[in-house]
UniProtKB/TrEMBL annotation:
Keywords: Signal. It comes from Albidovulum inexpectatum. This is DUF2155 domain-containing protein. Residues 1-19 form the signal peptide.
Length: 128
């Protein structure tokens, strides 16, 4: 929770940030970009699930969203490994509204958060 509060503070970029109440979703929608092939792929993951994307293994640890405004943002805890070496390339929170704040640094692939997914059938952007 301390890490999430820090991220929320940084997302304010100099404004006074009050800690928001957040809820965890059962999954998230991520998007991957292969910079060489110029293809994008959507990854729909449940919490605790991994997916293979090119040479990467992408694991979703958690996805949180603001309780008061679920469509406004998503915060996903991701662990991304190189499949061949097992090296951890990214391990931390990514923020949908600020993908460059905490980004995967890879010469071929980009991965970013689109939204959290909930189990209800609402069809709203933040908690689909």
């Amino acid at each position: 929770m301390r890490t999430l509060a820090l991220i929320l503070g940084l997302a304010g970029l100099g404004t006074v940030a009050m800690a928001q109440e957040v809820a965890s979703a059962p999954g998230a929608m991520l998007r991957g970009l292969d910079k060489v092939a110029t293809d994008t792929t959507d990854l729909d993951l449940a919490v605790g699930q991994s997916a293979t994307y090119g040479r990467l293994d992408v694991r979703l640890g958690d996805c949180r969203y603001p309780v008061d405004d679920p469509d406004s943002d998503a915060y996903a805890y991701l662990t991304i490994r190189d499949r061949s070496s097992g090296e951890v390339l990214f391990d931390g929170w990514m923020i949908a509204s600020s993908p460059a704040l905490s980004a995967l640094d890879h010469p071929r692939y980009d991965v970013w958060v689109i939204r959290c997914n909930s189990s209800d059938a609402e069809g709203t952007g933040g908690t689909q």
